[in-house]
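Subject: design request, 69 residues
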């Protein structure tokens, strides 16, 4: 997982990668803010991405303060 703060302040991406390493699908998932996405669940039919109540503050991170609220 990667936090690309400049690009993903209002969404995350779900990416499907084939066995050969090629990206098969990319889907942007809108969020109300920059959530700290720590976990997800994967089944045979579904991917569950949790929009956690913890957000990341780029302003605090730049100030070298604890960025999670």
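Subject: RE: design request

Done. Sequence follows.
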């Amino acid at each position: 997982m990667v936090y690309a703060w400049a690009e993903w302040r209002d969404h995350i991406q779900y990416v499907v990668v084939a066995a050969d390493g090629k990206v098969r699908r990319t889907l942007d998932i809108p969020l109300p803010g920059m959530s700290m996405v720590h976990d997800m669940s994967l089944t045979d039919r579904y991917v569950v991405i949790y929009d956690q109540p913890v957000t990341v503050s780029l302003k605090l991170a730049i100030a070298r303060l604890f960025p999670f609220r």
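The first helix runs from residue 58 to 62.
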